[in-house]
Design a protein that fits this description.
alpha/beta, nine-stranded mixed β-sheet, three-stranded mixed β-sheet, 11 helices, globular, binds S-adenosylmethionine
């Protein structure tokens, strides 16, 4: 796919109705030959809209006006390029815990959570946050995660978590202002509620830091999984990670995780881990497939804002 088509597709699939500012920006970039030529000098993984927009925001550039964005990016291209080459999108969205929770709560307790592609580890605290599914509320903590669930959410309790560990190629540290600045820059402009959520979730992680290990989700998973305490159900999970992993390594990961004790929860786009016979998604927006031990169970929106159970 061309870079222009990538940007236009991203605008239609992920941004429409979710971020007006980025939708306009992505459409403008898709028709901007000068920016497309600059992006074409980068490796494919470094051309993504989310990465470009996040880097420009991190550098203090404007993202509300496509013409000003163009001028800033062209003028500051050496700095923009340098950041694009060393960074990856590491958006850490605690809101995704709202779609993981029904599965986690139904497993034998207590749980030993191991998240691959954990970023700063904010999805490792599903037991500390509070949730609102329509008029049902669970938990008393902060942030409160809202999830519009179509159909009943089979929930009776928060999970009991006795161990939390994350594996990431580049773990981020919520006590480091530079890492928090990058996490903040990755949040879409109008999403003030997600900025507040980041602050509240970071406070939770700061109070009880997770074990975060720098490593690869294939090479380093067995050693970390072996550290999980006996007597707890090991749950290896990942959300919005495998699209960053080349297909042969994805396959190796799936083989590996299927051989581990415990359970495996996956929340990834449908083209990333293809399943047979998925129902139609509820609309044209990007949805992840929530799956337990390889069985797809629900559609979920990218930031955990809604879910729809299959059948
Ligand atoms: C988009 S972020 C998602 C973070 C988190 N799972 C969430 O949902 O909020 C993807 C993360 O996966 C990590 N990642 C990508 N490839 C990886 C690999 N091969 N091994 C470990 N982590 C990886 C990236 O560094 C990044 O932090």
């Amino acid at each position: 796919m061309s870079i222009a088509a990538d940007y236009a597709g991203f605008a239609a699939r992920e941004l429409r109705g979710v971020s007006r500012a980025y939708e306009r920006l992505a459409l403008a970039v898709s028709a901007d030959d000068e920016l497309l030529d600059l992006l074409g000098t980068l490796p494919p993984a470094k051309r993504q809209p989310n990465l470009l927009f996040g880097v420009v925001r991190l550098l203090g550039g404007p993202v509300g006006d496509p013409a000003a964005f163009h001028d800033f990016t062209v003028t500051h291209w050496p700095a923009v390029e340098a950041e694009l080459r060393v960074r990856a999108t590491q958006t850490n969205e605690a809101g995704r815990c709202a779609v993981l929770l029904p599965l986690l709560a139904a497993l034998p307790q207590p749980l030993a959570l191991l998240e691959v592609g954990a970023s700063a580890g904010l999805c490792l605290y599903p037991d500390r946050y509070a949730y609102r599914y329509g008029d049902r509320r669970l938990g008393a903590g902060e942030p409160v995660l809202e999830c519009a669930a179509d159909g009943p959410v089979p929930l009776t309790r928060l999970p009991e978590v006795v161990w939390r560990a994350g594996l990431d190629l580049n773990p981020l540290d919520v006590t480091d202002p530079a890492d928090v600045a990058w996490l903040d820059a990755l949040i879409w402009p109008e999403h003030a509620h997600r900025r507040e959520r980041l602050r509240a979730a970071a406070a939770v992680a700061t109070a009880e830091p997770p074990l975060l290990v720098r490593g690869d989700l294939v090479d380093d998973l067995p050693a970390l999984a072996a550290e999980a305490p006996a007597g707890a159900t090991l749950v290896v999970f990942h959300t919005s990670v495998l699209y960053q992993v080349p297909r042969p390594r994805r396959d190796a990961f799936v083989d590996l995780v299927r051989g581990l004790p415990g359970h495996w929860i996956s929340n990834e786009a449908p083209d990333v881990l293809p399943y047979d016979g998925l129902p139609e998604p509820p609309d044209a927006g990007l949805h992840n497939v929530l799956a337990l031990d390889g069985t797809p169970l629900a559609w979920s929106r990218g930031h955990g804002q809604s879910m729809l159970w299959f059948g």
